[in-house]
């Protein structure tokens, strides 16, 4: 799950957060150095926010529900929040602050549904085969994100009109920003091959030999290779943006205050299309009901604690309420909705059966808050 700290922050920061840009075409805001610098501050704040949410939510879930299940800002919902609701640089249908308000309200509705038994009732309406299959679907969706440019190695990109997806892998400067497709140089980006061989194949070989922490080793190897400067795969290129990243990285241990994302909810709804706001709210709610519920069901079934007669599990109301509460808490820190993580299965497969596994995972997230320069890089 460690990847969520960097990936969630990178995705959500593409909205621009609370940064302001007066240009009519918001996509051109990235040509303004001050705006780019502000987005980098938002990203660093979101690194802290993501680690804090994951840590607090997972520890609480382990104590209250006594299940080896971790909670963090969810993949999929963060992509929907970024690209469909707020939009790149705030070009979407709902402003960043108002979208956070929608998430806060969603969490409250979720708590009410859980306390009244409505969520459990909705769970029982969903066939168990569909709930189990949802886990597979989420895994495939995570694969697509990992192969994309937005938060992955850039092996694939949108196919514009002809096909939904097409081969990518070219350097960023060769991408046509109108179509999002590579004009030339497909599969020639050095960072792509580092991701494939070091992040993918090395991890796969280690997993074949049943070596623990195979995925973490693969991700760490890719990160370490990207740290040296003056290489074709560096994360710190020789420009203003790269220099700023490197100065932050050199601090190693630091407390990054969430000055641009903390408590940014907007209750005025000024200039907001009410129908679009309601649409976003209920889309978040619907996706969360299906996503979080199906994933949690898959995990508890993997643990072997599901009652076959009632199709329920112990302390389910407390589990659902905890999940819902941290949706609202996460919005106060500037993040998209939190959810149960499918990656919890890795801990269960290693023998985790109680909340102790979740508590240890949460403590690791809390510790990572103070290593924001590393996780942001």
From TrEMBL:
Residue stretches spanning the membrane: 46-73, 93-115, 136-161, 191-209, 277-297, 317-335, 356-376
GO terms for biological process, alphabetical: adenine transport; guanine transport
GO-annotated cellular components: plasma membrane
Keywords, alphabetical: Membrane, Transmembrane, Transmembrane helix, Transport
Subcellular location as annotated: Membrane
Membrane topology qualifier: Multi-pass membrane protein
Superkingdom of this protein's organism: Eukaryota
Family of this protein: Belongs to the nucleobase:cation symporter-2 (NCS2) (TC 2.A.40) family. Azg-like subfamily.
The protein's name: Xanthine/uracil permease
Provenance organism: Bionectria ochroleuca (Gliocladium roseum)
């Amino acid at each position: 799950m460690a990847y969520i700290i960097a990936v969630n922050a990178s995705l959500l920061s593409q909205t621009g957060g609370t940064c302001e840009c007066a240009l009519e075409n918001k996509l051109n805001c990235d040509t303004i150095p001050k705006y780019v610098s502000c987005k980098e501050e938002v990203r660093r704040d979101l690194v802290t926010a993501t680690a804090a949410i994951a840590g607090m939510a997972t520890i609480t879930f382990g104590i209250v529900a006594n299940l080896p299940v971790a909670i963090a800002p969810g993949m999929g919902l963060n992509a929907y929040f970024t690209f469909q609701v707020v939009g790149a640089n705030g070009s979407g249908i709902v402003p960043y602050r108002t979208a956070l308000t929608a998430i806060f309200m969603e969490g409250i509705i979720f708590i009410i549904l859980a306390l009244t038994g409505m969520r459990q009732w909705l769970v029982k309406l969903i066939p168990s085969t569909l709930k189990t299959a949802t886990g597979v679907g989420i895994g495939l969706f995570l694969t697509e994100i990992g192969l994309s440019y937005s938060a992955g190695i850039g092996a694939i990109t949108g196919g514009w009109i002809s096909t939904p997806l097409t081969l990518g892998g070219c350097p960023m400067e060769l991408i046509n920003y109108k179509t999002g497709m590579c004009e030339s140089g497909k599969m020639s980006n050095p960072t792509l091959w580092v991701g494939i061989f070091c992040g993918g194949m090395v991890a796969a070989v280690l997993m074949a030999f049943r070596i623990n922490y195979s995925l973490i080793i693969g991700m760490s190897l890719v990160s370490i290779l990207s740290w040296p400067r003056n290489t074709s795969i560096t994360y710190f290129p020789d420009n203003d943006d790269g220099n700023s990243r490197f100065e932050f990285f050199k601090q190693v241990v630091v407390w990054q205050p969430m000055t641009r994302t903390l408590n940014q909810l907007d209750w005025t709804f000024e200039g907001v299309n009410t129908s679009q706001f309601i649409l976003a709210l209920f889309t978040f709610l619907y996706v969360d009901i299906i996503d979080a519920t199906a994933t949690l069901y898959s995990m508890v079934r993997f643990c072997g604690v599901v009652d076959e007669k009632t199709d329920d599990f112990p302390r389910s109301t407390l589990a659902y309420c905890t999940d819902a509460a941290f949706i609202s808490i996460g919005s106060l820190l500037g993040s998209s909705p939190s959810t149960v993580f499918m990656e919890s299965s890795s801990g269960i497969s290693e023998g985790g059966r109680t909340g102790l596994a979740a508590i240890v995972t949460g403590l690791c997230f809390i510790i990572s808050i103070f290593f924001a320069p590393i996780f942001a890089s």
